[in-house]
Write a sequence for this structure.
């Protein structure tokens, strides 16, 4: 299957700081998703981003498909941004999840 | 948007007992359902994929006789952990996907998860 690696594995930010999370994947993909898993475990879809850049409020994502990576930008972080961020790419019939980045935003 | 529910949200059981987890798609017909397992501080690992009316396809290393999956209707799938042991303690997440009118596969929606603790 496709290998999906994320970095950094852990990130601690002061409230108000900006951050960039990276997702590298081992094979060509026709789509990529970013999820936020909140502290209760619920997965929340953030972006479908097969290529290019999308923005939603303080979050934006960029995927460079030819170089097999995607970036998630979080600006002016808030404590509610804490949780684990996963990228995922589709396989033949399911999603392959990345290794995740655990973000902790401290007040 | 589409909603997927899971029940129970958390369960504690004694070693050797069986536990059933339900996954329901609330406002769409789920032609395919997925079951994932997530250990603490790890990623989601796919356990099995089930299509309505047919047997589930299990990922390598997942015991089909231990993790029984039933997808009897287009809105319900169940995962039964048989003879649970402490090492089965984990967070179990189901996901459901329907099919669009065009015939293409729809979006994959995730349930809120079930936290299982086996004592």
């Amino acid at each position: 299957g496709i290998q999906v690696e994320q970095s950094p594995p852990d990130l601690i930010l002061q409230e108000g700081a900006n951050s960039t999370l990276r997702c590298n994947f081992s094979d060509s993909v026709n789509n990529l998703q970013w999820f936020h898993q909140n502290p209760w475990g619920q997965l929340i879809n953030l972006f479908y981003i097969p290529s290019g850049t999308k923005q939603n409020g303080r979050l934006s994502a960029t995927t460079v498909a030819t170089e097999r990576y995607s970036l998630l930008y979080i600006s002016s972080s808030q404590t509610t941004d804490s949780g684990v961020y996963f990228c995922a790419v589709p396989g033949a019939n399911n999603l392959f999840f990345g290794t995740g980045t655990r973000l902790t935003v401290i007040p | 948007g589409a909603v997927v529910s899971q029940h129970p949200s958390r369960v504690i059981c004694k070693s050797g007992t069986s536990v059933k987890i339900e996954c329901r798609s609330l406002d769409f017909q789920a032609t395919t359902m997925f079951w994932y397992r997530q250990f603490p501080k790890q990623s989601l690992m796919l356990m099995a994929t089930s299509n309505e009316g047919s047997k589930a396809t299990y990922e390598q290393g997942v015991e089909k006789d231990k993790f029984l999956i039933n997808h009897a209707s287009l809105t319900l799938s169940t995962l039964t952990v048989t003879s649970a042991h402490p090492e089965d303690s984990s967070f179990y997440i189901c996901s459901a996907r329907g099919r669009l009118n065009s015939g293409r596969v729809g979006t994959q929606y995730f349930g809120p998860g079930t936290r299982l603790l086996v004592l």
